[in-house]
Amino acid sequence: MQGKTLGELASHVGGRIHGNADLIIVSAGTLDKAGPSDITFFSNRKYESQLKTTTAGAVILAAQADTPASQLIVEDPYYAFMQIVVLLHGHREHKKIGVSPSASIAPSAVLGADCHIHPFVTLSDGVRVGDRCIFYPGVFIGPGVQIGDDCIFYANAVVYDDCRIGNRVILQANATVGEDGFGFSTHKGIHHKIPQVGRVVLEDDVEIGAGCGIERGTLDDTVIAKGTKVGDMVTIGHGTKVGPHCLLVPQVGVAGSVTLGHHCVLGGQVGVVGHIKIGNLVNIGAQAGVIGNVPDGSIIVGSPAIDANKARRAYALIADLPEMRKTIRLLQRQIGELEGKEDLNK
Amino acid sequence: MQGKTLGELASHVGGRIHGNADLIIVSAGTLDKAGPSDITFFSNRKYESQLKTTTAGAVILAAQADTPASQLIVEDPYYAFMQIVVLLHGHREHKKIGVSPSASIAPSAVLGADCHIHPFVTLSDGVRVGDRCIFYPGVFIGPGVQIGDDCIFYANAVVYDDCRIGNRVILQANATVGEDGFGFSTHKGIHHKIPQVGRVVLEDDVEIGAGCGIERGTLDDTVIAKGTKVGDMVTIGHGTKVGPHCLLVPQVGVAGSVTLGHHCVLGGQVGVVGHIKIGNLVNIGAQAGVIGNVPDGSIIVGSPAIDANKARRAYALIADLPEMRKTIRLLQRQIGELEGKEDLNK
Amino acid sequence: MQGKTLGELASHVGGRIHGNADLIIVSAGTLDKAGPSDITFFSNRKYESQLKTTTAGAVILAAQADTPASQLIVEDPYYAFMQIVVLLHGHREHKKIGVSPSASIAPSAVLGADCHIHPFVTLSDGVRVGDRCIFYPGVFIGPGVQIGDDCIFYANAVVYDDCRIGNRVILQANATVGEDGFGFSTHKGIHHKIPQVGRVVLEDDVEIGAGCGIERGTLDDTVIAKGTKVGDMVTIGHGTKVGPHCLLVPQVGVAGSVTLGHHCVLGGQVGVVGHIKIGNLVNIGAQAGVIGNVPDGSIIVGSPAIDANKARRAYALIADLPEMRKTIRLLQRQIGELEGKEDLNK
Predict the structure, then answer these.
(1) What distance in Å separates the CA atoms of residue A324 and residue C118, rounded to the nearest whole number?
(2) Does domain A157-304 bear CATH number 3.40.50.720?
(3) Given this model, what pLDDT does residue C345 score?
(4) Which of A172, A305, C31, C241 could cross-link C179 (Cys pair, CB 3.0–4.6 Å)?
(5) Which parts of B279-322 are beta strand (E)?
(6) Which pLDDT score is estimated for A346?
(7) C-alpha to C-alpha distance for C108 and C130, rounded to whole angstroms
(8) What's the pLDDT at C44?
(9) For the domain bounded by C4-89, which CATH number is listed?
(10) Per-residue confidence at B2, pLDDT binned at 50, 70, 90?
(11) Is the separation of the CB atoms in C250 and C233 below 8 Å?
């Protein structure tokens, strides 16, 4: 690693420097671990005390502060930090191996230019892949799948038949896209499998985490719209439409036939029941259980999920329930006594 | 696709027609998206308004209703719908590829007739597979596993040593069956692994979702009885017995040594603690936490799970806790004042 | 199986016998299913009634009890049971297949002595593997990964680039280690991927369950310290440090930048928010939601998680909320009447 001066970094991200512009920065680190040739960032108040004691050479932050590090002051520190990490470290580099003779590629599959297909990858009949895609070992692409340009599918990711994948889509390892939706018709106690005729559509710039399962639709497609990022072990039910630019944190479960708007954030382990509509810019706290439609801009938490302001006080009061009941019983006794005296007063 | 007349569909499912029996139906669609040559169904009240405005050629439903579509009236609309989707679209067709030379098949493995084994599949020593099974790429079958007829294992599904798999079992992609149970003996602060000597038994017509983990038993087998369907990312603990014809919705977690009866339905993200007994025909709402035995026929929700009728009101009242506490404090003040006056009355 | 006398088992585990020391024990079984040549154990009070009716030849327990079985009395029955299961049944045996010609091994990868590498395994550039490691089919090891001795990676487990794996580490099937952390910088509505420069470090004797996802760190490593056992489908966020000898039961989710102490136990489906510190010897009940720092030795349950003693009563009272509100309303009426009479008394 060669490093950049803090001045170069500042002009790269459009910030101003308070401190030593000639400082050579070699890599990025956390506030508590960064050394004199590292740059770090400050955006979470929780770490304010570390700002004063950091041994980092430089820190990215939104406003000048009390810190021994040279300061790179920008409007959006986390965004500037991302740009600098990309500049200093880059994204993962993928070995240019071409198309491995140990891959299993159907004669009817069509590959774009400069694709890198590792051993033990399967491309089934009628698969179409765009340019510059990278498929790691064990990736399986079912018949008729169409994939755009610049996709990266990590080891053992699976895409079932006929799904549609946009450009720059990332599948982390062991992710599954397009498995059968959980659709059964129960008749006289027997669950009959309903053919899942729909597909999964992943639009441009979608990322799917390790171990996810994105069910194909029963009739309609399941859609994850552009720019949405999905964490590990998330499950999306059949026919659900996730809007663009959402963040679905690990272990979220969304049932079938749900509609989510754009820029929603679902915290870890959130569950959403089927057949509801969640608006735009909705923020759902970790472990919440959503059981009804949610208007645009809502911030909700809890199971069942309610308005966050209300919920934080309400759910915290669960701990006080024993005390509350004790008080109620005391009140009952007091009132009983008062009523007795009242009768005597008559 | 060639299509069928609505009359043909009606006789296929044993229903009667209100409308045009000669209408040609080509495919199935949802109430809001189906077109004039599509058939749809109505069984969820939520979509009642769409029934009046649907552009579908025909709709399957339980009783004559106000809709522009021709009506196919049957006792169980969702079951008839399933039959018609199967008729019009069929289940997924699997390419007849025979046994790939790129599969790794132990000399002692025995394959039935008409099996289709894709590249990169492993069948270990002593594996026995019935007739007409289909194993997609990356499937791993451990030593001594026995598998019935007509099974479909999707890409990268894994079955550990000695497990027993019935007929018509489906494993979705990246599912794991028979991994070691989470069994450790903690002695002087060290967790010692207990050999997991039991197996997993999947009976006939079981389906296991993508990314599931079904632990083998410590001593006893883990059993999933016939006809039970398991959604994505479900985990079943060691030695647990899931009864026949259950539905375990995605992300359910059942700990070890649990017994479930027949025809239970566990909603998404339900958790069940170990060493308990859940009766027959039990219905457990999404995200519930079950911490004790459950009698036959119970409908429970919440964490901790309680009777659903009670729970729906009780859990909804959490939102009212701040108001309730305010009222209690007001009552305390009022009673204090009354008691003061009472003293004055003396 | 040849069997051992109960006397031999007693001296193996350092226990004393009440009953027949010459009894031949062939295998281990559960209290309710063990037969006359089986040994079982008793440590969970729940099964006390089965102790009196067991048909087992022998039972391991902590104190002499009323049972028809011969008794092997030891201080820690479950630990003795583990030792005896290992003695009678042993751990899984792995076929000695050497290095398969159907594996894909980079010329620069270095393998220790007596490794067994199955078909369709990938070892990328610069991988170093210690002695006696076993990699099942479909395992993928990314560039630069270093692995100690005596590791067992089951089918389709994946380790991303540059991760560090200690000795005796077990990865169950379809586990993912080192996928990108869920790290994005959101700027003007677009989520920009932050290169995840950290690694995952799994120390000695760690076990990772089927279908897990252990995210690599953004800058710092994600660390799972020695002796910690992780159940199926657990997700660990980027940069989190899990201390030694913890137990993380299936479906636990720990967000990023969390620090856990040693000997913590996290029950099934527990969720932990990011950027907090959990002390040593902390016990967290199933489905709990942890949203703040937790001191050493705490036992907490509930979502939000609170002290377990308090929580068990508090969360159980949710079921009484409708009754409590009814009582409060009644009290309001009674007080209203009393105040009315009080006014009349004036």
Answers:
(1) 63
(2) no
(3) 63
(4) A172
(5) 283-284, 289-290, 299-301, 306-307
(6) 58
(7) 14
(8) 85
(9) 3.40.1390.10
(10) confident
(11) yes
Backbone dihedral region for residue B236 (phi beyond 0: left; psi -120 to 50: alpha; all else: beta) = beta
B28, B155, B316 member nearest A219 (Cβ): B28
Q: Which residues in chain C (273-302) have CB-CB distances under 8 A to chain B?
A: 286-287
Peptide bond into B119 cis (omega under 30): no
φ/ψ of residue C10, rounded to 5? -60, -40
Map out the domains of chain C as residue ranges: 4-89, 157-304
| pLDDT tens per residue across span A210-263 | 999 999 999 999 999 999 999 999 999 999 999 999 999 999 999 999 999 999
Tokens 């700002």 found at:
A51
Residue tagged 């889509």 (tokens): A169
Chains that touch B (3 or more CB pairs under 8 A): A, C
Q: From CA A44, how far away is CA B87, in angstroms rounded?
A: 58
Q: What is the pLDDT of residues C281-298, one digit of tens each?
A: 999 999 999 999 999 999
Counting one residue from chain A and one from chain C, the pairs whose CB atoms sit within 8 A come to 206
Domains C4-89 and C157-304 in one fold? no
Return the SS3 of B309.
helix
Comparing CB atoms, the residue among C44, C90, C209 nearest residue B195 is: C90
The CB density around residue B3, as the number of other CB atoms within 10 Å, is 13
What φ, ψ does residue A96 adopt, rounded to 5°?
A: -85, 95
Q: Would you state the structure tokens that stand for residue B90, as one six-digit string?
A: 């069929």
Q: What is the pLDDT of residue C189?
A: 97
Q: Give chain B positions within 8 Å (CB) of A124.
A: 95
Helices (H), chain A: 6-13, 48-53, 77-89, 308-316, 321-345
State the chains in contact with C (3 or more Cβ–Cβ pairs under 8 Å): A, B
pTM: 0.96
Q: Does C219 touch chain A (CB under 8 A)?
A: yes
The predicted-structure confidence for B176-185, as pLDDT tens digits, reads as follows 999 999 999 9
Query: Residue A304 is nearest to which of B174, B316, B321, comparing CB atoms?
Result: B316
Distance in Å, alpha carbon of C197 to nearest chain B alpha carbon: 27
The pair of structure tokens assigned to A245 is: 């630019």
pLDDT of residue A205: 98
Alpha carbon distance C116, C158 (integer Å): 17
Given this model, what pLDDT does residue B124 score?
98
Amino acid at A270: V
The pLDDT tens digits of the residues spanning B116-158 come to: 999 999 999 999 999 999 999 999 999 999 999 999 999 999 9
Contact (CB, 8 A) for C270 and C284? yes
Residues in CB range of C298: below 8 A, 6 or more apart: C279, C282, C283, C307
Q: Please state the length of chain B.
A: 346
Residue A129 has pLDDT above 60, yes or no: yes
Of the pLDDT bands very low, low, confident and very high (cuts 50, 70, 90), residue A97 is very high
C213 touches chain B (CB under 8 A): no
Q: Specify whether C187 is catalytic.
A: no
- The order of strands in the sheet holding B104-105 is B104-105, B122-123, B140-141, B158-159, B176-179, B213-215, B235-236, B253-254, B271-272, B289-290
Mean pLDDT score of chain C: 95
The model's pLDDT over A117-126, given as tens digits with 9 standing for 90+, comes to: 999 999 999 9
Q: How far is C191 from chain A (nearest CA, A)?
A: 7
pLDDT of residue A312: 86
| C318-336 confidence digits (pLDDT tens) | 999 999 999 999 988 988 8
Burial class (CB in 10 A: 0-12, 13-18, 19+), B156: buried
Residues 42-81 of A with CB under 8 A from C: 44, 46, 76, 78-79, 81
Nearest CA in chain B to A219: B29
Kind plus residue range of the DSSP H or E element containing A25: strand A24-25
Local structure of A255: helix, strand or coil = coil
Percent of chain B with pLDDT over 90: 92
